[in-house]
Amino acid sequence: MTLKEFEAEYFFHSYQRLPIEITHGERVYLFTKDGMKYLDMFGGLAVNALGYGNPKILEAITEQSKKFIHLSNFYLQEPQIRLAELLVRHSGYWKVFFSNSGTEAIEGAIKIARKWGKSKGKSEIISFTKGFHGRTLGAPYNDIYSLKSSVSEKTTAIVLEFIQGEAGIIQSSQEFVSELKRLKDKFDFLIIADEIQSGLGRTGKLFSFQHYKNISPDIVVVAKALGGGLPLGAILGNSSVAGVIQPGDHGSTFGGNPVACAAGVVVLNEIVEGGIMKNAEQMGSILKSELTKLKSEFPSLIKDVRGMGLMLGLELSRECDSIVTSLRERGVLINCTNKNILRFLPPLIINQDHIRFAIDQLRIVFKSL
Ligand SMILES: *Cc1c(COP(=O)(O)O)cnc(C)c1O
Q1: For ligand 1, atom 5, which residue shows the shortest CA distance?
Q2: What is the distance between the alpha carbons of residues 354 and 83, in angstroms, rounded to a whole number?
Q3: What letters, b where the CB count within 10 A reaches 16 and e where it falls short, cover 171-199?
Q4: Is any ligand 1 atom within 6 A of the Cβ of residue 160?
C-alpha cells in the first residue's frame, strides 16, 4: 500500500495531506523519496524556526535523552529551570508555566485569568473573530466599535493575536491597540497575547505586540517554535497574575518535558543571542519588498502584501490552491490560508539566495496564469 492508501485505511480523515513523501530535512530544505529537494517556506507552520537538523538542537536532545527523557513534575528538572530563566530574562515577565502545545497554553492562560477575575466579580473572556485560539465571546477584529460594545466591568480578559496567522496575516491597527489599552485602564481586565505563531523572533522582535506603542499584555502565550520541533508551549505572566496559581490549581503530565526544554534552551539562545531574530527582521524586510515588487508586476492578481518579519501574507484575487501546486512542482513549499492568501512562515535562518529562488518561482508561476 502507498502512504495515501494507509491513511485512508487507518486514520480519521482530519488532514488534507500533501502528495509528497518526505524522507529528511536539512536547514531550509526538505527532501523526498523520489529525489526532489524543496525550499520550505512553510516552516512546519512556524515550528521549525531553526530549520532542520540544527546540530546544537540535536546535541541538546541527545545529551538530555541520555539523562532522562521524562520525569514527573513532582521533581524539579534542570532543563525546565534553565528555559524558564531564559524566558523570564528575555521577556521581562515574572512567571512561567510549561505546556505541551499552544492550545493547552491558551487554556491554562484562560484558567489563570478566570481565577484572577473571580474575586473581582468578573466572568467574561473575549476573543476575536478569526482568531485561532478562539471560542467564548467573539468581537470583530480591528473594529473599535465592536470592541467597545463587548467590553464591560464583567470582562475578565481579552485574548488576541496582534497579528492573526490562520486568518491570513492580519495585523492589529495601532488605533485598535490603543483603544484596547484605554478600555483596559477603564475596566481593569487582563490582556492575553497569543504569540504562539508570531512570537519568539518570527516578526523580528521577541513578541509581535512589541511592534505597538504603549501596550504590555499581562499574559503571553508561546508554543510552536519553542521546543525546536518537540511539543512545548509556555504561559508567561506579569506581576498582576504572578500569585494567582496555587499548588493543585493547574498541572500537566508531559508539560515541560526535559528533552523539549533542553531543545528550547538552544532555540531561545539562538533566536535572541545567536542573531536569528535579527536575521528574521532583515530577511523579512527583503522578502516583503520583493513581494511588493511582484505586486506591482501583477496588480490584478496580487491584492495585498502584509505582515512583519518572516510572517508574511500575499492576498490574491483568486484561490491559491493551484498556485501552491505549481510552486511545489517548482521546488517551493508554501501554505495557502483562508483560500486566497499565500502565507510565508519560512525557517528564520533563510538567506537572500533562498528568497531570490522563491521569488523567481513565484514570478514564473504568476506569469503562467
Ligand atoms: C498553532 C496555533 C495555536 C494552536 O497551537 P497548537 O500547538 O496546535 O495547539 C493557537 N494559536 C495560534 C495563533 C496558533 O498559531
Answers
A1: 102
A2: 31
A3: bbeeebbbbbbebbeeeebbbbbbbbbbb
A4: no
In sequence order, the 6+-apart residues with CB closer than 8 A to the CB of 236 are: 87, 88, 91, 93, 95, 96, 219, 220, 221, 222
What pLDDT digit, counting tens, does each position of 59-118 carry?
999 999 999 999 999 999 999 999 999 999 999 999 999 999 999 999 999 999 999 999
> Which residue of 133, 203, 209, 235 sits with most ligand 1 atoms within 8 Å of its CB, as the best mutation to test the pocket?
133
CATH class of segment(s) 55-272: alpha beta
| Residues in Cβ contact with 302 at an 8 Å cutoff, skipping those fewer than 6 apart | 291, 294, 295, 314, 315, 316, 317, 366
For residues 102-111, one letter each, b for 16 or more C-beta atoms within 10 angstroms of the residue's C-beta and e for the rest, the string is: bebbbbbbbb
Residues in the chain: 369
Cell (9 digits) for 23: 524522507
Q: What is the pTM of this model?
A: 0.97
The domain covering 3-53+275-368 belongs, at the CATH homologous superfamily level, to Aspartate Aminotransferase, domain 1 (3.90.1150.10)
What distance in angstroms lies between residue 308's CA and the mean position of ligand 1's atoms? 18
Domain ranges of the chain: 3-53+275-368, 55-272
The number of CA neighbours under 13 Å toward the Cβ of 5 is 2
- Ligand 1 atom with least separation from CA of 164: 13
CB of 195 shorter than 6 A to ligand 1: no
